[in-house]
Every structure is written in structure tokens, then in C-alpha cells.
Recover the amino acids of this structure.
């Protein structure tokens, strides 16, 4: 049992440590590096036909006292575990930032390179892959070298009318994703959206010039189409803010939990893809919303920076030897009563699960009855009111909303697609409903809730 005297000592020591942290300035550094592949390289949709706009790795490094951490956000559809491990190891070696204090995420742009290997030996373009790692590390090192005392503003606003839940209840009682424009069989959306825009603004303490922003919004980056490289709508957000704050300004965009959220409005036909049709409109609308919120964002007078991470073991979906043989046999497409597209995705999922077992997963003898995936959750505390969470996978919006609702931090920004590629992470209710995202998921029902529980535990510990 802890005595009153011991408890008082603990409180004094804790208060003293907190006072030392608060007395030290928050330092911030930001940088970006071009990661655009050459024309003709591998593209998510085939071979690239060039670049509409460049792709970047953008890094944000924060330091207060002895605590240092980094968030690197890349214009990529996903972050393979191999890429994350190699880049984070190099960042730790070159800067001294602890490996566990670095999180690397992708924006999920569907007009980026298909670099992500299904296994360490499966890299479509080894030369580009090596260049990609070099530039991700370079962005973090540049940001570390740019560290300077900074003032933080933190808050949130709302963006209505851009995002839609893409899973719908149909008249036959089934749930279907993206059922088409004005489909007469649509009853209603099967879930919410998250209209919140989370914002962090960093200004130079000496000049008050804006250094960087972090904007987090939950909507898929699949508005462009075609085979040109493009960063999708965050590019227009970045360019709009840079036109106001200067070319040295860094705009980071973190993709919120949008595994079941995209930009398709099924209520009526209108332009739904292409830079001139919808992408520019989304990016510039979001930029206008951010700019209008900036003057009213509260200043953080007592920043308190700390990073925590935790790796948990999430059960993977299973498959039988017969299913694996079927997945590798294109001559026998019919096994389940589902659309041909879903049969195709199910085959790809089973092959992916087999590769995960070979290269990443942990066998049942280690942790329970299933193969498991080691998945890392990060939590960054910036002040008593502000925190950032990064999660692996394409997280369903309901899971992200739960973290925000139960977080002890008033302003909690939740970013998906961090440090490893595990495809969709639905909530339990969605697993029972089925369709595309469920068929394409790698984790067992409840895996998403495990990530939520871990994030909340880290946030409570930081608070």
C-alpha cells in the first residue's frame, strides 16, 4: 500500500517534472522532399503516363526538452511495413529521434506509384524504392535541422458537403458500397461521416511567420482517375495555403478515418472525377475552410510534448488450403454467391493473407488461436488539450469517431494508414453487414476495436 508520505512525494516529483517540461520551448521543424517517380514507372492503375503534379514526403519534427518525435506524411496509397521499418531506422540513426517516436503515414492517393511490395522480394522498381526511402529520410532530417522555437495554435472546424458514407442499405436488405448514382434501390447510408477538420498551426516564435499546418480530414483520396501521378485534392489545399504564406511554408495533410467515406454523392449525376471536375473544387473548398478558421484558432500557451507508441497483436482472418488453391486458380472464379468484383477481391485478399503469414504475421503458438499481425499505435501529446493519433489501415469512420468522443483531449486528430499496409479495418457492425471493405479486410472482427482501445489507453496515459 502507498503511504500518504509516498503519495505526496510522487505528486511533488510529477509536478516538478511537468513544470520543467512546460518551462521549455516547443521547437518545430518542417520540410518536404519530392518523391515523384519517373514517367513510365509503375502506377497504381498500371504504367504511369507522367505527372500532373509532384508527389511529396512531408515531415514534421517536434522537440521539447529531451522529448523529440516525427510525423512523416507521404503522397502514397499506403506505407508498407518494410518501407516504414527501413525509413524509421534511418531517421533514428541520422537524427537521434527514437524509432518508436517516428510515425510514417500515407495519404492514400490512388494516383501514386504501386511500389508497395507484397513481400520483401516483390518490389516493382527497386531503384525507385531505394530513392523513396532516401527522400523520406531526407525530409525528416531536413525538418530536424529546421527546428526552431514555435508558437502552436490548435483547434477544429467543420466541412460539410464534401464527404459521404459510401455504404448503403438497399431494398433487398443487403449493404452495398458505391451502389451508383440515383440507384432506386438505395434506402439510406449505413453510417455517419466525420465532417470535422482538425487543425494544428505552427508559427515562428521570433517572426510570427507561419511555418507549417497539419490538416486532418476524413475522405478517400480517389477523386482524379487516370494514370498520371497526382497528390489528389490535398495538392490544391497545399498550393492555396502556400500562395498565402509563402513557398517555404509546409502544408501537411493527414487522412482521417475514412475506410467507408468518399466523395461520391449518389443523389444526382455531376462531375465526380478529374482535376477540373471535382478535385480542384474539393481542395480549394477545404483550403477556404482552413483559412477562415485560422484567425480564431486558440493559441497553446503551455505546450507539453510527449510521444507514446504501443504494438498489439491483432488476429488475422483465416483461410483454408482449398481457398488458397482457388485464389491462385483463375479458371475457377465461382466459389461464393457474390458479385464477380467481390470474388476477384476475395482472391487477392487470400493471397495477401498467405504472404502476410510468410513475412509479417505471428503464428498461433505465440498469441492465441489465430495468426496475428503486430500493429503499432502512436499518440502524440502537444498540450493538455491537443493530441494526434496514428493508426494502421483504412479505418472505418465509426472507430475514429469513438476515439475522438472518448479521448481525454479536447482536440484529438486521428490519422490512418500508418507504418504498415493492412487494407480495411471495419467496425464489428460492418463485418456483420459484409460487402467490399469486409471482404477486402485482413483482420478479424474486433480488430478495429482493439486499435481503438489501445489508442484510448495511450491518450489516457498521456493525459
Amino acid at each position: 500500500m502507498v503511504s500518504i508520505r509516498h503519495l505526496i512525494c510522487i505528486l511533488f516529483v510529477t509536478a516538478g517534472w511537468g513544470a520543467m517540461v512546460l518551462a521549455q520551448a516547443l521547437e518545430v521543424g518542417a520540410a518536404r522532399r519530392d518523391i515523384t517517380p519517373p514517367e513510365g514507372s509503375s502506377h497504381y492503375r498500371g504504367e504511369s503516363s507522367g505527372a500532373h503534379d509532384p508527389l511529396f514526403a512531408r515531415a514534421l519534427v517536434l522537440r521539447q526538452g529531451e522529448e523529440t518525435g516525427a510525423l512523416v506524411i507521404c503522397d502514397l496509397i499506403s506505407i508498407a511495413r518494410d518501407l516504414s521499418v527501413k525509413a524509421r531506422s534511418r531517421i533514428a540513426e541520422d537524427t537521434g529521434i527514437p524509432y518508436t517516436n517516428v510515425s510514417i503515414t500515407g495519404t492514400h492517393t490512388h494516383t501514386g506509384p504501386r511500389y508497395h511490395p507484397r513481400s520483401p522480394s516483390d518490389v516493382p522498381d527497386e531503384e525507385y524504392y531505394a530513392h523513396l526511402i532516401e527522400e523520406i529520410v531526407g525530409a525528416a532530417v531536413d525538418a530536424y535541422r529546421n527546428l526552431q522555437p514555435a508558437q502552436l495554435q490548435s483547434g477544429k472546424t467543420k466541412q460539410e458537403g464534401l464527404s459521404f458514407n459510401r455504404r448503403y442499405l438497399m431494398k433487398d436488405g443487403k449493404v452495398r458500397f458505391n451502389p451508383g448514382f440515383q440507384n432506386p434501390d438505395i434506402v439510406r447510408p449505413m453510417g455517419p461521416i466525420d465532417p470535422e477538420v482538425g487543425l494544428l498551426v505552427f508559427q515562428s516564435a521570433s517572426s510570427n511567420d507561419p511555418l507549417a499546418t497539419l490538416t486532418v480530414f476524413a475522405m478517400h483520396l480517389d477523386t482524379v482517375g487516370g494514370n498520371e501521378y497526382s497528390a489528389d485534392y490535398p495538392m490544391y489545399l497545399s498550393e492555396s495555403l502556400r500562395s498565402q504564406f509563402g513557398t517555404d511554408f509546409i502544408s501537411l495533410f493527414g487522412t482521417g478515418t475514412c475506410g467507408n467515406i468518399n466523395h461520391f454523392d449518389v443523389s444526382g449525376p455531376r462531375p465526380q472525377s478529374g482535376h477540373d471536375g471535382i478535385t480542384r473544387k474539393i481542395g480549394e473548398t477545404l483550403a477556404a475552410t482552413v483559412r477562415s478558421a485560422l484567425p480564431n484558432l486558440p493559441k497553446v500557451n503551455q505546450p507539453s510534448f510527449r510521444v507514446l507508441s504501443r504494438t498489439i497483436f491483432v488476429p488475422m482472418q483465416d483461410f483454408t488450403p482449398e481457398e488458397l488453391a482457388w485464389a491462385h486458380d483463375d479458371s475457377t472464379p465461382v466459389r461464393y454467391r457474390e458479385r464477380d468484383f467481390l470474388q476477384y477481391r476475395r482472391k487477392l485478399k487470400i493471397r495477401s493473407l498467405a504472404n502476410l503469414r510468410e513475412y509479417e504475421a505471428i503464428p498461433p503458438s505465440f498469441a492465441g488461436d489465430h495468426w496475428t499481425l503486430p500493429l503499432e499505435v502512436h499518440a502524440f501529446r502537444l498540450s493538455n488539450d491537443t493530441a494526434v493519433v496514428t493508426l494502421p489501415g483504412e479505418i472505418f469512420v465509426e472507430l475514429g469517431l469513438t476515439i475522438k468522443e472518448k479521448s481525454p483531449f479536447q482536440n484529438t486528430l486521428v490519422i490512418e494508414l500508418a507504418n504498415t499496409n493492412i487494407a480495411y479495418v471495419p467496425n464489428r457492425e460492418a463485418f456483420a453487414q459484409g460487402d467490399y471493405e469486409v471482404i477486402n479486410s485482413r483482420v478479424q472482427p474486433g480488430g478495429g476495436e482493439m486499435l481503438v482501445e489501445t489508442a484510448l489507453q495511450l491518450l489516457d496515459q498521456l493525459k
About this structure: DSSP finds eleven helices and 22 strands in the chain. The chain has one domain: 26-313+375-435+442-462. The radius of gyration is 22 Å.
